[in-house]
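Weekly modeling sync, notes
Attendees: S.R. (lead), two postdocs, one rotation student

Agenda item 3: backlog of single-chain predictions. S.R. asked that every request posted to the team notebook include the full sequence so nobody has to chase files. The rotation student volunteered to paste the first one in as an example of the format we agreed on. Action items at the bottom.

Example entry:
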Amino acid sequence: MKGEATLQWIEATLVNDETSTDADLVKYFHDEGGLEHESISFILRQRDSALRNPLKFKLNPEGIIL
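Predicted structure, as returned to the notebook:
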């Protein structure tokens, strides 16, 4: 999974997964998406924004290495 499809998958996960812990998401993004820790940390810093305003949330991809 690479490129735009990966970004959409990450965005959908952040917006829709209210119950997983950060540790769960680290494992999920690594195991299912092959993402590295640096990218996952960047993604998780955007999680609060995604959960607070899911209809307007747009993932900032600048810190994600695909």
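Discussion: group reviewed the output briefly. Helices lie at 4-16, 22-33, 37-44, 47-52.
Action items: rotation student to repeat for the remaining queue; S.R. to check formatting next week.
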